[in-house]
Specification:
The chain has one domain. The radius of gyration is 16 Å and the shape is globular. With 192 residues, the protein is mostly helical. The chain has eight helices and no strands. About 12% of the residues have low confidence.
Length: 192
């Protein structure tokens, strides 16, 4: 019963973050607000990158197995937004290492979700936040417009929420998580 309350609370937090993101759309007073930087582009972005989609699902699946897991998706989102805003500081030479780091986060999140290892909530939140920051850095350059950023965060929140509510059977949830971890290993092997 308590876990169900945590899931509902996380979904309410994600919905609130999405609504507040929707209210902060750009004034369109500057160039760069073409068709590829709007809300729709942001909404579709997390669904078109396998690495990001799998990481988001894994965060939701992993959060479901943690005592205070409802906090993990909002922390992932906030730190992803911070990572995206710091993407301009990223030097071009670091991009290959960043892509390998993203693949490693898919492997890590999938493995953590598959093991359903209970860990101190602070450690789980720090790991989720660090993964979110890396994903934000990787995607920040692609999300130049505020509208696309808001759409990106909204879609990301929905995918993590889906990971939290889908597949109530723990065995199947672990199998799905293990498949995500294996996909992360394949992504990592392809980049190294």
């Amino acid at each position: 019963m308590k876990n169900r309350k945590n899931v509902k609370k996380a979904l309410r937090l994600a919905a609130a973050a999405a609504v507040s993101g929707l209210t902060a759309l750009p004034a369109l007073a500057h160039p760069g607000h073409g068709g590829d930087s709007g809300m729709l582009a942001g909404l579709l972005h997390p669904l078109t990158g396998l690495d990001h989609l799998l990481a988001l699902l894994a965060v939701g699946l992993w959060a479901r197995s943690q005592r205070h897991g409802a906090v993990m998706p909002p922390v992932f989102l906030v730190l992803m937004a911070l990572g995206a805003s710091s993407a301009g500081l990223l030097q071009d030479g670091l991009l290959p290492a960043l892509e390998a780091s993203i693949a490693a986060t898919v492997l890590l999140l999938g493995a953590l979700a598959a093991s359903a290892l209970r860990m101190p909530p602070q450690l789980a939140v720090i790991l989720a936040g660090a993964c979110g920051f890396l994903h934000g850095m990787a995607h920040g350059r692609e999300l130049a417009g505020m509208g696309s950023g808001a759409g990106f965060l909204l879609a990301s929140a929905l995918v993590m929420g889906l990971g939290m509510i889908v597949q109530p059977d723990p065995r199947r949830r672990r199998m799905a998580s293990a498949a995500i971890g294996a996909a992360g290993l394949c992504l990592l092997a392809g980049l190294v």
